[in-house]
Structure formats: structure tokens, C-alpha cells
Design goal:
8-stranded mixed beta sheet, Four Helix Bundle (Hemerythrin (Met), subunit A), alpha/beta, binds magnesium ion, about 10% strand, about 55% helix, binds guanosine-5'-diphosphate, Rossmann fold, 8 strands
């Protein structure tokens, strides 16, 4: 699926992950970035400004909880706010016997969605019947029949007029009956009356409004209008694949009482997904990239086993690269370093324990170009060896030297924490106890 909404947000998250310093100015830059992306996606201005205010407040007033850096707090609050904007939680459909009425304007995707939804229930083990109540457009019933045939789902279309067809279908034996309806260019009087009559006959368990994503923030007004007319219990947003305005629809829907149940992401019957704001958003911004950071934010603490390994074991170059790869562990290490009494001159400048992704990748190549002996004892690595390793790993000599220097610094910290007096007394002992280490 190609989503046009949100590509700018992914960049924003990467920017935070890589920026040098999280200060007031940096927060302001990011907030402006986010505002631009949201407004371009047609999210309501008032919602955007509320969200900005909350992010600023978090960042300028809240203290990060223990174990969380300011950067992680920033990522987390931005993430939470944006997910909240797109709908707080997922609103699942029940897998039970029920009648579902689909309503919406002409061309919004009702007929296609009837088939998609039918398939969704069918693959979950329920029997489904589709009811073709659009009697206004000549080809509408055929369109549904064809879709039903492809899916092996019966389509009911006998009866006089929309209401008559609906009534006749009510005696069908299937678990789930999905009623397709007609739409016009706008919500006119004739359509309104027909819908009311249909709803009265069907007595649907669910009345779902089908809306295309390019509707943007008008979604709210439209869903309120339909809601006044027949009452709606949920929304389906179609054509999320085709427009950057999808953010506007979702944000707009999240402030109405009817929640988005599904999104349509293409023309095929399988291009249909349950809408889960959290999952949707994490995929949008490339959750994998920030997963570690968010996880840490959630736990806001140490990974005991890993911390113990670092503190008690031999700290080899391989450990080093492992530790470096997972930035969250380096975060823990820098915490350890901070708490060592009298680190004085050895204390590393701020930020030195944070390594960028590209650098880590280069370092991994460097380490794999080393011999076993060199890995075991990096002291062996003299100038000619540096040259050879750089050549072998396709990096520069200064990259190799930088990596070795960094490794030595980290190793020094690890050594100091090992077995020293600091372990039995003082803040480090407390820390170790928190981590469950036996003294
Ligand atoms: P109706 O008039 O509300 O019944 O709308 P239709 O179901 O006939 O759909 C109108 C057009 O939108 C058709 O060409 C569908 O293929 C297309 N369509 C429906 N849902 C989606 C979707 O999620 N993505 C895309 N790209 N097209 C869709
Ligand atoms: Mg139709």
C-alpha cells in the first residue's frame, strides 16, 4: 500500500532521532515541521494548534522519567499526540450475527466496500449475504452481483424499490447481511427519505458511513449530517491510497462520536484493513526505526540481563558493537558513567555515547575486517593494521581510529564499574541493586 499522507512525519521522527541537541529551539523547529505536514494533509487548524501546544508543554515543562532521555521523551510525546489525533483506539467489529447498512455519497466506495466487508467476515468464518439496494444507478446491482460471485457470497436483489429489496432479504439465513445503498452528489431530500425508510425496515445493528479520504476535514460535517439523518455507528474511510488528505479525514473523524472501523487502501477486495490508529501510525512513520526508543520509553528502566552482562563480563569489541547497535543500552551506559563518583577527567562529553546509525554500520564493517586476534586484543592494531582494516572494510583510516578510541573510552567506564568500591557503596550500589545485581 502506498500512503501519501505522513511521509513528512517519518522524516520528522528521523530528524529528532539524529539531532544534536534537544533544546527549546529544536523543539520549535520540529513543532513547525509537524504543523506543516498536518496542515498539508488537511487536518483542522484548531486541532493542529492544540496538538502543538501540548507538545511544547510536555517538552518545556515535564521532566523525563527515570531512564528516559529528553530525546526519547520528545519522540514519545510526539508519537502519542499524533496517534491521539488520528483516533485514540481501535474500534473493532463484532464477529456475530448482524445487519449492516452502508451509507454515503455517490462514488464514495459503498458497493466496493460492501464486497470488501463481506469478504472480511467470510474469512473469519461467518456466512455473509450482500443486499443490492441501489436501484437508482442502472449498473449498481450488477456491480455487486459480480463482486459477490467472485467471492462466493450470495447477492439478494429481488423486490420493489430499495425498501422492498431490503425487506425481502431480511429472511435470508446468512449470519451477516450487508445492505448496499444509493448515493447522490449531495444529500438531497429524496435520498434522505429513502435512507430513513430503509433504516426503519432493516433495523441495522451497525450503520456505517463510507467516506473517501480526499474529503479531508469535511468528513466531520458530513458524518454529523448523516448522523442526524439515520444515526451512524461507525465510519469506513476509502481511497486512503490515493490522497495526502487522509490525515484530515482521520483527525476529523476522531472528534466525532463514530469511530473509523476500516480503511480502504485500493480497488481490490483485499485492499481493506481494520483501522487501528496505533498500528496505522507506526507503519506510517516507520515504527521499526524508533521501536527501540519507544520501548525504552515505555519501560523507562534498565534491561537487567544486558546491564549485568556489561557490568560483569569481559567487554569485547563484539560486545561493544552489540551495545552500540542498541542505542538504548548506550543510554544505560552513559547513566552508569554519570553515577560513578569521581569520574572527573574521564567523564565523557555529553552526546559522546550516542552514535549515529551510519557510523554504527561503518563500525560493523570495520570489526568484520579485523582478524580474530585483533578483535580479542585491539591493542595489537598499529598503523599498518589500521590501513589494512580501512581498506578491507571500505572505510577511511580515521574511521577505524575513531571506532577504536570510542571503544577504549567505553571500556574504561565498564572497567571502573567492575568490582570497584563504588559498587558496594554510594549511588552506583543503589543502581546495581535496582538492576537486581548481587553485591
Ligand atoms: P459507490 O458509488 O459509493 O458505490 O462507490 P463504488 O464502490 O462504486 O466505488 C467508486 C470507485 O471508487 C470505483 O472505481 C472503485 O473501484 C473505487 N474505490 C473504492 N474504494 C477504493 C479504495 O479504497 N481505493 C481506491 N483506489 N479506489 C477505490
Ligand atoms: Mg454503489
Amino acid at each position: 500500500m502506498v500512503l501519501k499522507f505522513g511521509s513528512g512525519l517519518k522524516e520528522t521522527f528521523m530528524k529528532i532521532a539524529h539531532m544534536g541537541k534537544v533544546d527549546k529551539e529544536a523543539v520549535e523547529t520540529i513543532v513547525r515541521d509537524v504543523q506543516r505536514v498536518l496542515l498539508q494533509s488537511d487536518v483542522n487548524v484548531a486541532l493542529v494548534s492544540e496538538l502543538s501546544a501540548r507538545i511544547r508543554k510536555h517538552m518545556l515543562e515535564d521532566k523525563p522519567p527515570a531512564g528516559m532521555t529528553l530525546r526519547e521523551l520528545f519522540l514519545k510525546s510526539l508519537y502519542d499526540e499524533l496517534v491521539g489525533l488520528l483516533g485514540k483506539e481501535k474500534a473493532a467489529m463484532q464477529l456475530k450475527r448482524q445487519r449492516i447498512l452502508l451509507i454515503g455519497l455517490f462514488g464514495s466506495g459503498k458497493t466496493t466496500t460492501a464486497a470488501k466487508l463481506g469478504r472480511w467476515f467470510k474469512v473469519r468464518g461467518l456466512s455473509v449475504g450482500l443486499v443490492a439496494c441501489d436501484v437508482h444507478r442502472p449498473a449498481a446491482q450488477d456491480q455487486l452481483r459480480q463482486l459477490g460471485q467472485k467471492l462466493g457470497i450470495p447477492v439478494y436483489s429481488d423486490g420493489m424499490g430499495a425498501e422492498g429489496i431490503a425487506k425481502a432479504a431480511l429472511s435470508a439465513k446468512e449470519d451477516v447481511l450487508i445492505f448496499d445503498s444509493a448515493g447522490r452528489d449531495a444529500l438531497d431530500g429524496e435520498l434522505a427519505n429513502e435512507l430513513k425508510a430503509m433504516a426503519k425496515t432493516i433495523k441495522p445493528d451497525e450503520t456505517l458511513l463510507v467516506m473517501p479520504a480526499d474529503m479531508g476535514q469535511d468528513a466531520r460535517r458530513q458524518s454529523e449530517e448523516f448522523s442526524r439523518l439515520v444515526g451512524i455507528t461507525g465510519l469506513i474511510v476509502t481511497k486512503m491510497d490515493g490522497t495526502a488528505k487522509g490525515g484530515g479525514v482521520l483527525a476529523s473523524a476522531s472528534v466525532t462520536s463514530a469511530k473509523v472501523r476500516f480503511i480502504g487502501v485500493g480497488e481490490k477486495v483485499e485492499d481493506f484493513e481494520e483501522y487501528d490508529p496505533n498500528r496505522f501510525f507506526s507503519r506510517l512513520v516507520g515504527y521499526g526505526d524508533i521501536e527501540g526508543l519507544l520501548e525504552k520509553a515505555k519501560e523507562a528502566g534498565f534491561d537487567e540481563a544486558k546491564a549485568k552482562e556489561v557490568l560483569e563480563g569481559e567487554f569485547t569489541l563484539e560486545d561493544f558493537i552489540e551495545q552500540t547497535k542498541a542505542m538504548k543500552k548506550m543510554g544505560s551506559l552513559s547513566k552508569v558513567a554519570e553515577m560513578i563518583p569521581g569520574m572527573g577527567a574521564m567523564r565523557l562529553p555529553a552526546g559522546q555515547l550516542e552514535v549515529q546509525q551510519e557510523k554504527m554500520e561503518r563500525w560493523q564493517h570495520i570489526i568484520s575486517s579485523m582478524t580474530k586476534a585483533e578483535r580479542k586484543d585491539p591493542e595489537l592494531i598499529n598503523a599498518p593494521r589500521v590501513k589494512r582494516i580501512a581498506k578491507g572494510s571500505g572505510t577511511a583510516e580515521h574511521d577505524v581510529r575513531e571506532m577504536l578510541k570510542y571503544y577504549k573510552n567505553v571500556k574504561k567506564i565498564v572497567k571502573v564499574t567492575k568490582g570497584g568500591k563504588a559498587f558496594r557503596r554510594g549511588p552506583l550500589a543503589k543502581l546495581a541493586k535496582q538492576m537486581g545485581l548481587k553485591m
